């Protein structure tokens, strides 16, 4: 059995691993670390939570020195994931004084430009990287290692044209790593295009059935919220509730708050600062229920999540797999609960049941035990008051606020100044 010492990693890195209680490499790390050290290109499939990030970060940190300049570019699909991976690089490179910069949209580009001047490793989203390249604030001709993390999600989100333009700026003589939780044909095709004679690794899910309990309830649209409230009040510690649509996350978090469950939402229309604050609250357990879309949750790597709820059923098995992989991590037990309420949801969930044959149990809830829903909160000027989600949502006409006295006063001012 391999050990981190057997990989001949720097003693500084080994010390960091020991301090963080990491003593044994995961299966994907056992394969990745020696391959990356030897300079091979790699196409790897391994489930969320399997340890992919440390699998590529440790050998790269080991090979770099501060004076080397920019050497590593890691492309990721979301801002949260960029932040998360950058933190891992920083955590395990302390003492080597490497420069690590996360670049993503929604925050000041000038601050990122300043950091790039002294960086060895960039972890970034395609959109912001293109902005930096087109402004002339970034050159990639010194890159020796290019990483595509969560490649399946980047392609799902339509980043392929941006990726093409970025890769064209990177030297062809480089090491390329492509990592993904799934390997659909699009990812395999991209691997053939960008990688040179890659070693392909496929690891089975690290979540053992005895650690992850998967269940589902048949319910109705009217009973779905009372059922979720009943479950949240009775059987959770740190819960992640998934919705398919951004506006539903905000509505649901607000409704949960009105009914006594402290919840906040996480979706792509929130500012970067809002998202980071919510994630940090959740990470520190000041917030125990997070309602999120799939894209927004991509950067969440929190080992203590005990329950994952599919409030809206995902449209494909891969998304379901990503979701349930957020719990039962690092040897902890977890529950994945799906609420199936409509014929359409039943259709999609049948695919999941077929794939996870025999591993998802049907459960029944006593509707008499469901809580009565609190009345809707009052509205002010066409908008609901702030709820637990921390997000306002307009109701009624799109521009209902234009009838307010404040707006009429501003309009008179503009008219008089013409």
Strand order of the largest sheet: 3-4-2-5-6-1-7
CA gyration radius, whole angstroms: 23 Å
Q: Given the structure, what is the number of helices?
A: 15
Total DSSP E strands: 16
Query: Based on the structure given, which CATH architecture of the largest domain is correct?
Result: 3-Layer(aba) Sandwich
> Helical proportion?
25-40%
The low-confidence runs, each spanning 5 or more residues with pLDDT under 50, are 382-418
Principal-axes shape call:
globular
Q: Span from first to last CA?
A: 79 Å
The name of the CATH topology of the largest domain is Rossmann fold
Mean pLDDT: 86
CATH superfamily of the largest domain: P-loop containing nucleotide triphosphate hydrolases
Total individual domains: 2
Layout of helices and strands:
Elements (H helix, E strand, L loop, with lengths): L10 H9 L7 H11 L4 E4 L6 H12 L8 E4 L3 H15 L6 E4 L5 H8 L4 E4 L1 H10 L9 E4 L2 H6 L3 H8 L7 E6 L4 H10 L4 E4 L9 E7 L2 H14 L4 E4 L3 H13 L4 E4 L5 H12 L5 E4 L14 E4 L6 H8 L9 E7 L2 H13 L4 E4 L15 E2 L2 E2 L20 H13 L1
Parallel strand pairs: 1-6, 1-7, 2-4, 2-5, 3-4, 5-6, 8-13, 8-14, 9-11, 9-12, 10-11, 12-13
Antiparallel strand pairs: 15-16
Helix pairs in contact: 2-3, 3-4, 6-8
